[in-house]
Queue: 3 jobs
Job 1
Amino acid sequence: MIRSFLIVCLMVFTTAVVSAQTRFFTKTGTISFKAGTPVEDIDGVNKSVTSVIDISTGQIEFAVLIKGFEFKRGLMQEHFNENYMESDKYPKAIFKGKIEDLSKINFKKDGTYKALVKGTLEIHNVKKDVEVVGTIKVTEGAISSEASFKILLEDYKIEIPGAVKDKISPTVEIQTACDYKALK
Amino acid sequence: MKRVIAIVLIAIVAGAIYGIYLYNKKPTDTRDEKADFEITAVELMKEFTTSEEAASKKYVDKVILVSGTISEIDLATATLIIDTTDPLTAITCSFYKEEASALSHKKSGEAVVIKGKCTGKLTDIVLNNCILSNSN
């Protein structure tokens, strides 16, 4: 009798632990951006993005190291870090937000779901509220996220000198892609 | 007079060639660079935990040889994670795509030395442009 009681207790406990696993993370997400014009292509990519998503609350966060963005050309990478992002002073960019329409996403069922995410994006020591419609994909219990959105450089106090105005676009297109694993 | 014009022309051409060279120069390649520091994963994490600011000043943008134990390998993203004995934090090593094949022979638990450029710390310390060091 005591034994079966203990077994039931254990089962209940295990279920609780399993269902409490609502946080998913990645350390190898990708963020890329395009800031070029027809005169010059300027593309940066970072493949060591950290992101966490909590499927019970809809909380979603991204963090990326500015120094980890890679470019085709060395000088571009240097100017990006030194002149525009000042990455020695402001080494990270961070987004903290929430999936607003969480109830529309069924994390137990395979599919691609639209997700409206509202939150704060911090770049170059400037915090701004942003709203992005991204997608959440569920494949056999695995979760991935994707988003594409535009920001204005002047919103983040990133100044482009007159001499290169025709090369650097005032709006930058940002793309994110993350494959998450359950947080153990 | 002719000579002056010739010199000026040569200077302009040389300047232009140098400009084109600079413009097309690739970002630095860790494979061609000497390591600035050699350290164990545990020691490196200790320095970042003690003072992230001081450690960032010392290591960010520098090529480092980091030795430790592999905790995870992800071939799809060409990433290797080195254990720091602290379960909450590690060293994430993002490899050159073309160097990722070298990872398929490695297993978690194995000792490894990685050469890469430090880009700072999020929850993990991140090394970019990584390769397996020749010393192992």
Job 2
Amino acid sequence: MAELSLRNVSKRFGAVEVIRDLSLDIPSGEFAVFLGPSGCGKSTLLRMIAGLEAVGSGEIHLGGARIDTMAPGDRGIAMVFQHYALYPHMTVRENMAFGLRNIGTPPAEIERKIADAAEMLEIGELLARKPTQLSGGQRQRVAIGRAIVKQPRAFLFDEPLSNLDAALRSRTRIELARLHQRVSSTMIFVTHDQVEAMTMATRIVVMNQGRIEQVGTPMEIYQRPRTRFVAGFIGAPAMNFLPVTGVTGRGGMAVARLPDGSEVATEVPIGAVKAGATLTLGVRAEHVLPGNGAAAKVDVIERLGERTLVYANLSDGSAVVYDEPGDVQLSVGESVALTIDGAAAHLFGPDGLALHG
Amino acid sequence: MATYRRGRGLGDRLLLLAVVALAIVWIAPIVWVIGLSFKPNDVLMRSTGGIHLPPFTLKNYVDIIASSQVFAWMLNSFIVAIGQTVLTLVIASLAGYGFARTNFPGRNVLFVLVLAALAVPEQAIIVPLHTMFAAVDLHNTYAALIAPRLAFPFGVLLMTQYFRAIPAEIEEAALLDRASRLKVFWRIVLPLSIPAQATLGIYTFLHAWNEYFWPLVSATKPAMYTLTVGLASMQTNFAQTEGIGFLMAQAVFAGLPVLILYLFFQRHIVSAVAGGGNK
């Protein structure tokens, strides 16, 4: 259990700058998820924390001590790799004992720690098997077990769920969240899957092109995205973005006019809007309300069971996705009327930053 | 489904037929050599046909064993072959790991040099080798018989490729498990490379055992002959004086240890030749 602190960390591979002057503090005991598209630098950042990649410049501190100058094994960190990285020639028990033996743990204590971890992860009957005799889910548990027995100050997870099927993935998500509650260590989890981030994280770090876009709790990130990138990356379906053709003030708040002529009364203070700036309005599917308002034509209907996603085109041709109940009676080409809930809408400036009060 | 099965059955049978035909082509000369080795030389002077018909004799083998030096030569061959095998494995593994996993200036140039050495025929370097070993007065020693082939480019290449194929994640996991570089190599990488080690080891041993040219050049004293050179030395003028039967018996005798080795390591050799080392 320790606080992790990154200070002005940079990293380049040749001419490519993968991490740009990044600073971040993760309080002790948090479940932090590094979330971002492929190539955003999240895995590189994790590997730098682990010591598997040298830091270009800047410092990394764990529990108050500088660790970026230490060997990987000396940092008090355990890592679960994407492909599990179990030692194929060792049994499950030997896999878990290897790290403990290397630090001179007495055999009796090794046995006790393995037994504890095996019980927690329900892998007791697998201890004598080799990794090739295990299923993907079992290997995953062993990899986690190998991390747990070391009682590290921080756990690192590098997309560990990406090789599991959907059912196992959602089960493992729950188990990881439970594990975090039990061991209460700092955990850092890298993923490109926003569902994993939303469900497990106590804090999400959204990354893009080697920079942090936003740090916050899952709901903060969802409800108050700081940038258009974050708004578009989090949430399924992706947030609707509509060009704003003009802004007027009403009661101190900005009213955005859309290309089809309709108006949306936002709760963004008019003072935050720079005159003449090209703005984009962002609104999630659940905040586009059918019933009355702007005319639109249904283009595609996606039935998900408990809800239906309807993709419709406004009169000017811009596309909007909105929510309907699962059993809604609708057909492609039908005319609908849509209202955008202005209180839940966001305005983004030309630099991609959200306008807030 | 039924058609598919029938088609596969036919394909399997054709394949089996081809394998049997190839096996006959490969085995026939060996059977012939063994057959001839049990025939009296004077009979063979007249005709080498009818190896399955009497008369038979063990005289050719008795003649070999009667030579007091045969077992000394065999020992020499063993020392040279085992020495070459062990040292080649050590050198090729360390060099291969260096090329596969460490980054040092000039690595690529050095690797290309190793690859280039693959193209140099053994015979081309015999004279310089002979001069070198003569200069340091090492001819007629085990060192001279073993050393020249230790820098074995194919072995380095094989191990480099094999180490590259081991996921780096596994070694990284070991580093995080507080293993030193040496420990990672010794406890993780080496055990995982056993199939490649077996391939290279068997290959090296067989090559060293059968090697003729270099021992012929380097070992001039009969006490330092390897089995191949020693047996050849027993033929004063090739087959003319001692006879074909004796010659064939020598071939069988020299091949026996390899055959025994094969019986012991059959499984490994098959997987070595199959090339994968996949379990």
Job 3
Amino acid sequence: MFYQLTLLAVTTVPTEEAGLADTVNGISEKFKIYPELFFPQLISFLIVAILLKKFAFGPIQEMLEQRKQRIADGEAKLIEIEKQLADSAKHTAEVVEKANADAKRMIEEAKASASNIVEQKTQEAISSAQQIISKAEAAAQAERAQIAAELKREFGRLVADTAQNATAGKLTADQQRAINDDALRQVQA
Amino acid sequence: MRKLITSLAVFFACVSPALAAGAAHDHLPVHAEEIFRFGPVVISNSMLMIWIVAAVVILVAQLATRKIALVPSGLQNFVEWIVESLYNFLEGILGAHLVKRTFWFFGTIFVLILFTNWFGLIPGVGTVGWFKEGGYGGDSHDTFHPFLRGGNADLNMTLAMAISFALIWFYWAISENGIVGFVKHIFAPKGQFSGPMAIMMLVVFAFVGILELVSILFRPVALSFRLFGNIFAGETTLETMTAITGNWYTNWLPPIPFYFMEMLVGLIQALVFMLLTSVFLKLICEHHEEEGHEHH
């Protein structure tokens, strides 16, 4: 302060120099601003400030910085996790969508395949049934033909027997045969 | 029980200086007094007070940071709250860059002034001492020398803080602006001018720069006298109030309201000193800070 006030005294009008210097000296005397009191106080304050920086504010500030850093890291990780979660959800949705599409496609394919099989089996069944019917019809027809032939033969024999009995040997073999054939033709017709 | 202890503490806080004041010196000297000396170095009672306060602050900080927990509690939580609040407050004034660099100084200023002011109110400070003659601060009519004195009731102390700030302010201003930037910040015209107006503005701002220089040079004086004046006035008020009744069984009563007021004054003065010093630094670094932000 002494030097500040001296500077003020130097920068002012020379006629006031002595008066200001006296004022400065008076203040210094009054408040005991002496170098042997001031400089130890100045050094003491600087030492205290350095000690507080090293042992008080330093550790606390470091602790707060660490916490801030940890919070910032946590927030960064949270953002990363949220991003990963969003990616995962998107990926899951894509997979589910793809699975749905695949399932749908497979169902469609299965349906189409089942329809084909049903059609094929139906056709096979129809074909098989037709074959059975054809065979049955052929068998029935053969049996009917056989029965008809047997009937004809029996009827012919009955006609021949009847005609022979009626004519009682008056007809020749050729006439007999002609009558039999005629009777057979009529039976067959 | 807590109320009873508080009441007793207030009672003894008032009675102790009152008793001592009555028995010791008839007035509070305007300066600190010598306790002992190492050769030419004088250790005053205010310096001793500063050391005690610093030791307590360091002890509390060390205790708070001894077992650091992720989720703070107790003392750690309290200390963190104080420091973090102070840091955020200063960050609002100085900006993120400057506060990181200068917090230790402004934190020290605030905490040291605040607790020195409040420690000065503890019973025994200024009232416990011894009688002797001579030494610095020994008035001819007052032979009582207290061991402790309110640290900021000594102009040497407040001036030491103000001068320290002035020196460190100059260093920070130069390192942030550069020498040319520092000179330009004080003397260069602010705004865009051309022609004769530019020449006129050069002259005007040169004059303004000189005024600014004088203002800068006188800042330590204003800072130191403001703090010293407020704290010394408070101590004088307390001593006067204590002596006003003139008898020992009632003299504890008048200073009670003033103790509460002095606690408030202690806080306000710590805040004012820290705010002014931080604003002075911000003013000289403001241009640079803005440019820095633009660059970012």
